[in-house]
Amino acid sequence: MALFLAPLTSRAQVFFRVSVKVFTDSNGNRPAGRSNAEIQDDYTYYNQLLSKYARGCQFSLTEIVQMPASLSGWFNVTARSGTSRDNLLANCTSNSALYAYRSDNVNVYINNSSSGVCCGANNGLIFTGNEDDHITPVHEIGHMLGLSHTQGSGCNSCCPDPLGCCDTPGDDGIADTIPDLPCWSQNQISQNQFSQNYANLSAGQQDQVDDVWLNIMSYHYGNFNNLLERLTPGQMDQLAMTANGTRDNVTGNYFRFVDPFSVFDGLGGGLNTATAFRTVEGAITGSGDDDVLAIRAGTYNRALAGVWRITQNRVLTSRNGLVRITKTP
Ligand SMILES: [Zn+2]
To answer: How far is CA 266 from each of CA 78, 198, 297, 302, rounded to the nearest angstrom?
Structure first.
């Protein structure tokens, strides 16, 4: 039994295709709260978050497939387990028809447990419990699209767990997220970075703390649930590069970066100044239909804007603030 959702009539941005599968019990019943409408409602919310970041991307929930009762052995398995994930992935790849495993989608499997896990080898998968109205599924998709936790990788538990990391935040590889640990409070994040409590910070500093404290890729959801709603420009850059690269199979088009500090103007629009397009004109000419140009904030004079000859559609977004195009030569 599958629900095939209406095809999108126009790309006009980058869509991350997501195929959701729901395990059932031996009587063929889904977990409570996991009807098609309730799952679609979650993705509507996730897309509202993506819209806020204004990076020209959305999730495309391509289908919701109810798994047959013959697979009810998965109904109460602990989803948040690397072993469960690897076992499920092995079954999916050896019997892709039965498990509705898609090579061109992010594959999300839902059962009756809680929390979740990503990704495993190659196209991988996401395995979550019954996370209705919760941030977990989009957090796991964040991992699928190349994001680490705000506390870095391999730091997933709190002290006094002997495996917990008590003092030293890891590195998430993102320049605009300040250091974090799974069990830090808002004041601890603040003290570590600014040596002051949150209440004493400037508005800009508070915003930096909140970028971590309210981050989808943080572990602070013990406190907030769905109020975790932030991804930073740096995280969106990383996500775009992963979508262009190792997860190219779940999209149909590309993000192309424009940076006036770039040395060249035609190497493909990568993130750094060695590979980004230098001019808007170069990016329009050198990208494909409905590609999203992610432009570094700043002023683009006539030389950097160029003369555009539009023969295909493009989407223009700003990476991190105002983009102004001037008539100045
Ligand atoms: Zn995670």
So the answer is: 48, 44, 19, 18
